[in-house]
Amino acid sequence: MAQKSRLNCCHFYFAISNYEAQGKEKQDLIKLLNAAIASVQTSHDYASILAEYESKLTGKQRIGFYDKNPPPYPDFLDNMLSHSLTEYQRAKFD
C-alpha cells in the first residue's frame, strides 16, 4: 500500500512539473509575440513617416527614392514566428 501511495505521489509531482513547464512555454510564446508586435509596429511607424516624406518630394527626387530608402521589414519576424510556433506545437503534442 505504501508503494502505491509513493507511485501516486511521484505521478502527481510529474504532472505538476509538466503543467508548470507548459505554462512557462506559453508565457515565453506570449512574450515573443509581444516583441514581434512591437517590432512590426515600429517598422510600420517608420514606413509611414518614410511615405509621408516621399509624398512631399518633387518628381526627380522621387525617382529611386524607395530603392535608396526601402521600407523596413523585420526579416527575422518570419523565422522567429515560425520557429516559435513550431516549438509550441511540438511541446503541445509531446
Short note summarizing the structure:
This protein is mainly alpha-helical and 94 residues long. Helix 1 runs antiparallel to helix 4.
Key traits:
rod-shaped; 94 residues; mainly alpha; 0% strand; 4 helices
Description of the structure:
With 94 residues, this protein is mainly alpha-helical. The protein contains four helices and no strands. The model has no long low-confidence stretch (mean pLDDT 75).
N-to-C CA distance: 31 Å
Largest sheet: none
**Count of alpha and pi helical runs:** 4
- Indicate the proportion of strand residues: under 5%
Task: Give the tally of β-strands.
Answer: 0
Overall radius of gyration = 24 Å
Low-confidence segments, given as residue ranges, are none
Helix and strand composition category? mainly alpha
Helix content: over 70%
Instruction: Give the overall form.
Output: rod-shaped
